[in-house]
Every structure is written in structure tokens, then in C-alpha cells.
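One thing: mind reviewing this one?
=====
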Amino acid sequence: MRFSRDRRGQSVVVGTVILFGFLILALSLYQVQIVPQQNAQVEFQHFEEARNDLVELRAGILQAGSIDRTQYQTVRLGTSYSTRLFTINPPAPAGEIRTTESYPITISNGSDTVTIPTRFLQYRPGYNEIDRSPTWYDASALYLDARDDGGGIAVIEGQELVTDSGEVRVVALQNEFRRSGTGGVTLELRPAESITGSIPEGDLNVTVPTRLSGDEYWNETDIPADTYGGVTGDANGDGVHNLTLETTATNLTVDTVGVQKAPEDPTQNVDGALGGGGAGGGGDGGGGADSLPAGKVAYDDANNNGAYDTGETTYEGPDLQSFDRSVNLVVARDVSEASYDIQADSITVDSGVTLSAQNGQVGFTSSGQIRVSGTLDTTPTNGNGISLDGGNLDLTDGTLRASASVQLSSQGQTDLDGSVIDTTTLNGAGVSVVSNSDLSVGDAEIESGGTISLESSSGQISGSNALFDTTRVNSNSISLTAGTEVQVGESEFLSGGSISITGNGGLVDLAGSTLDATQVNSESITLESNGNMILDRASLRVASGGGLTGSLNGGNEELFVQDAEFLRSGSGATFDYSPNGVDVIGTPARGSTG
């Protein structure tokens, strides 16, 4: 038998091989040329976002000490590339932000010298395509530093150490801090809580450490000639110079700001005031509770200097049971009455003072500020709550203990930093906070016998290291709702019911927080943002039948989940997010996203 040579299929095979070769070549060219270009665009977009974050961070550092109020600023450390089907991305670029070792600020009048430690702050991106030069916060200036690669510096925000009129304001940044990753990190910038050092008087010589020489930056600034004393060389070979400023005690302001906690070595001017209240006296008297006449517990701070002065009107305990006067009321000594209904222009309960209601409620109403640094207590008998309604509420380091619900409302800002609110003596006694502006909860401890509801109608809710606990009674929920964004990291949400956190006008940042709704089956954790959602290192836990959901309300937003945990009944569960198109950045430690 003879076989014929049939070549009819060879052209098809050869054509297929050639087409496949062209496909491989095209993919190779795409991988080598297009992928880096697209990734560079992603990196540059992140660079601009991070630069804006750092500008806000610098402003927060400078503002925290000047207004004596904790600031919260989030920096997006890294980013992620678009998902690719046939080509490969390099690892997602992670960034790092850290403080350096301490360097001394010195202030001397020739006979007395004060040394204050301060640190630089560095952000270094981990880009694969564009420049990795770090950005530095240095002596109030913010700049991009490419000197290690043979370049120079690019100033983003100029110095604010010295004004045009020669006033000098020094802000010392303290505490060690370091974070890295691809998600966001919230820095808590805390002013001094107590003063351990003071500033010399008279003519002063101030030296401030800086990484920039006079030729590189300082010689070209607009610091007045009679204030600018030049910049010394790098004597220690560590890249740090000393900027010298000539000023006087009356023209110098010194603040210390701590990262994530109070400054480690707080120092401030002799006449500086902390926590929104003055420390000095006035008139003939001068002083607070110690100078009050015997039998008096409160006074009208007519000159609003935070101290009792001779001639100011004073009050006894019974006067406060039903009080309605246009005064700046300060409760400066412990007082115990049946109940309190107080209306005044402003109301202050001093630190260390306890206002106790033996058989009734505590009600404060003011169009101005209500400030409680001491303790309000209605627990001697059951069923008595606390109601505070003010223009602004400042409960920094204050304590509220109630045997019924606590209701707080403010037309302005509300500060709960370091406060303790406890309604656990009565089942069902909840805690409600409604603020028209920003609501701060750093280091707050809120334990409720009922629900916990926090609302900022037009501002943000921010803080870290907070505790919210409704586990005393089943089915009591925790709810946080902000008009803009929610930034409550490194905190604990322990709920007897569901947990709901909503940022109606911005991101939701719960990095490092624990959200636990495991006490009752079928209770859910629901998160909603109008921007990015940051859950890096967070742990979200529900019991059987409970849901884990997140809505980002935009397909171009980012969900950060590096090292997060999503658990149902102790096992890995799916965090259901929406809408489609959200970029998921990072890998959970347990559970998944979908």
C-alpha cells in the first residue's frame, strides 16, 4: 500500500504557531513598556495624595499645641496596582513613616539654659517606577529630599518658626513612632498634658536642630535679620545642623506635641495655658478652690481667667440645685446635693472636683462651653441620668457616672479625649452623643448598660485607643455616624448587639481596631464610607448568622485589609463589600473579602 503525502494541515499549524509567537511578543512588549507606564501613573497619583496627607499632617503638628487640642491626621503609606490577567505586577509599593532619634532644642538667656528634645519626621515611599526620595518634616518646614541620589531639596511648605514681625514659635515633636505598609495610618498628635519645664526670661538665644544648611534653605527664608543667627555646620557628621534664632521671652512661644501619646518631655512658656483653662490668677486674689471663701463651692469667673478673684460672686451648694444666671460658672469644690439643673453662659467643673447628685439628675445647659474635667455622679440612687447641652462640650479627662442614660449634645465641637462615661449600674441606660461639629474620642472609655450612639452631623469622629462596651446587656448596639469621616484606630468595640459605623462624607479608618459582636447570634457588623475604608490589622468578629458587610459607595475607592481578621464563630469568614470596582489592597490574616 502506498501513502500519499498530504500537506493540507501544515499551513494552519504554522499560522497558529506564528500567531502565538506574535501574541507572546505583544505580551512581552506590553509587560516591558505599558505595564511600567501604567504603574508609574498609579504611583504618581499616590505621590500627590501622600503629599497632601503630609501637608495636613504638618498643619496638625503645628496646630495641636497652639489650640491645645489633639489632632488626628491620616497618611496613605502605599498603594496598589490594577489587577492584571495576563501580565504581572511587581509587589505593591509599601511606604514607611517614622520619627528619628531625638535632637536638642536649646533656649538660653546666658545664665539659664533649657534643653527640649525634638524629632524629625520622615516619610519614605517604596515605589517601583518613580523616584523614592523621602519627604521630611523638619523645624516646621516640609520638603522632598533627593540629596542622597545627587539631587537637591524641593520645599513643599516653608518654615513657620518665625513670622515677618520676628515672633518665634518653636514646636517640639516627641515620642518614637514607626509604621509601614500599603494602607493608611492615623497619627494622633497630642499636646502637653502637664508642664515639667519652663522657659527662661529676658533676651534669648534659641538653637533648633535642622537637616538643612543655610545655603540649602535657611539663608533664603524671610526670617528678619535681627532674629536670624545663621546655621552652624554639621559638627557631628550626622547631617544635623543648628539653626540659631535671637529673640526675647515675650516674643517666644514653645509647644510640645507627642505622637500617639502625650509628649515625653513637655515644656512650655511660663504663662502658657493647657487644656483650655488658665493657670494663673488675677486681681487681688489669684487661685482657684483654695482662695474661695469658706462654705463656697463655685464662683462666677467674670473675667474668664480660669481662677477665682476677690470680688467675684460665689455660690454655695444649694444655689446650684436650680441655677439660671448669665455667668461663667466654675464649680471649684466638691458638692453634694439632691439634683442639679444649671443654666449659665458657660459651665466648668474643675479637675479633681466631684459634683454628686444624691437623689436626682444632673442637667447642664449653656450656649457657650460646658467643660467637665472633674466628675459628675448620679449613682447614689437608681434611675438618675446626666444631660449636657452646650455650644461646645469639653469632657477631656472628665468622668460621668450615671444610674440612667447619659445624653450629650453640642452645637459645636465635642471633645471626649481621655474621658470615662459609665452607665452600667442600670440595665438599658444608654449613652447618646450628638455633636454638630467634630467629635473626638481619643483614649475615651464608654461603658454602657444600654446602647452607645455617637453622631457628628457635619464633622468627623476621630481618636485612637478608645473603648466602647455594651456587653452588659444582650442586644445593645454600638453606632458611630459622622457627617464626614470616621477615624477611630487601635480601639475596641465590644457590643452586646450589632455594630454600625458610617462616614457619610469620607473614609472610614478602623486600622488596628477590634470590632466584636459575638455575644448574640445573628448580630452584624456594618461599615459604610463615602471614600476609602481602612481595615489593616483590624479584627471583625460576629457569631453564627451574623453578617460582615462594607459599602464604599464608589467604584473607585480602596479597601485596605492587610493582616485583617474576618471571623464568624471563630472561623474565617467573608467580608462582603460593595460596589464592584473597589480596589482591595492587602491580604487578610484570616478570612477573605468578596
Summary: Residues 10-67 form the longest helix (58 residues). The first strand starts at residue 71 and ends at 76. Residues 405-593 form one domain. Residues 270-287 have pLDDT under 50 and may be disordered.
